Amino acid sequence: MSTSVKQMLEAANAAVPKITPAEAQAMIAKGNTLVLDVRDAPEVEKSGKIEGAHHVSRGMLEFRADPDSPYHDKNFAKDKSVIIYCASGGRAALSGKTLKDLGYDKVFNAGGFKDWADYGGAVEKPIEPGM
């Protein structure tokens, strides 16, 4: 029996709590938090990212998050809270579910980058193309 993307999103949204920009900001202020941008590089280059966020595209997440992977990124630590965002929240939810499956307990979906920017959260400027 196959699973639809709708079912995958429902499961991800059930497993990963959604938080508001204000809640995300409070968690970031407390420290020991990884803010994770899972959008593709061209999206980040165009709009910028949450100040201090770490960018790992959705396609590389498992490889970067798994401590046993040769591609492991040391920014990932299971004792940290992980706040994930994308463009609108769908990839963040799926990414959060993936991290939960990999043993990360404190994972939260902050929705889309626009939510953060509209809230007035600190943003790093877009990258100039070719840099």
UniProtKB/TrEMBL annotation:
Domain Rhodanese: 29-125
Keywords, ordered alphabetically: Transferase
Lineage of origin: Bacteria, Pseudomonadati, Pseudomonadota, Alphaproteobacteria, Hyphomicrobiales
Matching CDD domains: Polysulfide_ST
Organism: Bradyrhizobium oligotrophicum S58
Pfam families per the UniProt record, alphabetical: Rhodanese
Molecular-function GO terms, alphabetical: thiosulfate-cyanide sulfurtransferase activity
Database matches in InterPro entries: Rhodanese-like_dom, Rhodanese-like_dom_sf
Designated name of the protein: Putative rhodanese-related sulfurtransferase
PROSITE patterns: RHODANESE_3
